[in-house]
User: What shape does this take?
Amino acid sequence: MKAAFGVRQALRLLWVCAALLAGCAGVAPGRGGDAPKNIIILFADGAAPTQWEFGRFTARALRNESFAVTDVVMRDGVIGLLSTYSLDSFITDSAAAASAMSTGHKVNNFAVAMAPDGSRWPTLMQEAKARGKRIGLVTTATVYDASPAAFSVNAGDRGQAQAIVDQYLQMGPDVLLGGGADYFLPAAAGGRRKDGTDIIAAFAARGWQVVRDTAALNAAAAPRLLGLFAGQDMAFELDRDAAKEPSTAEMAVAALNALERDNAGGFVLFVENENTDSAGHLNDAAALMRALWAFDHAVQAALEFQRRSPGTLIIVAADHETGGLSPTYALRDLSSTSSKNRFNADIAHLQMLDGITLSIAGMIETLGAKPDAAVLDRLVAQHYPGFRLDADLREAILARRPLERNFGNAVAGALSRMVSRQSGVYWGTAGHTSEPVVIGALGPGAELFRGYQDNTAFAQNLRRLLMPR
Assistant: This one.
């Protein structure tokens, strides 16, 4: 009995030692030569596994293109999952989710890297800058929007746009690209600032090259870059004027070019496509599909940079799921519940999505506050070829009557339901859901992101990778 007990003890000791060694192996990338020189975080706001598969399948089926998110980063790298709940809610908002991923601490919804008692949690970009890294923020939203703000500065509420912009000037991100010129400019110059300050001019005076359109961005040659391409959010890819607003990939390339200039210490770059979230809120399948493709082109640009600079870690991430995306099979109409009256979302239905030429946001803007029946019919015929607006949906739009309690915008809800009924791409809500998000990591330190973790672990892992090499 004693001998058997001794064997069991020895085996247990060996198991513990093996576990400790495995744990130490997980720590190593943050402490030794395996630490990345550069970290690129590619952030598709509102995207979860269903969105990634939607992007992958449609890219292949409609464009005969591979999808780098799944076909390279998640196939050849490491996959993990993150929970998304906030400090005060099962369903997070973007500010709380990004704050947890940036600081390693849960915060209440709408807070930007700030505890309920007003304490400021150090953000990822603050710590990266303190450790000698150059930093960059890129987004298709306003640059002061929840996600880029939470990865860089602190605020009691995500709506404190002017205060967030003021902190950017103080912090000095080497690259800052996106929309949101309104809170960089005073009212006299067409902006919304209340103090009369021209923050664009202030950045220029401190040595940042300022660019305001695609051509200027592509020609930029400075190591510090401020690019503001819209007064507020940048346009959906489906609606984008390519001369005025660069793509996510073009902004990513410009940011990478700027950050690597005369830079021996490396950088941390955050690149967000926020249109994936906005499309989810509007239940706009066509806009989501194009946004996913645009995001993937930015991932391809990051992978090309990684090939030239193999000490680079690429992380594909998201903060939460938006919309409850549900491509499915459904009844063609309500005349019968027979399986003969059912259809599955197939290539032909996805091709209908590809034929849409105006986002639901564009439809809402064009229709205005009081939709006109004739204008509505003309817009549907012009921009949604092959789709039929059923009478109940048409009436809901003209009366601006929401269809259900979790679909707030009447026009968006009815238009998206039109698309759903004839494409099989349905939605569960116009808000966020609790679905875990996928993390894909490729490069030095990627192993830290493997497995099911809380979103605060994302920040903790990044800090380990920022430790001195």
User: Anything to note?
Assistant: The chain has two domains: 36-324+431-465, 348-426. Confidence is low (pLDDT under 50) at residues 1-33. The first helix runs from residue 2 to 27.
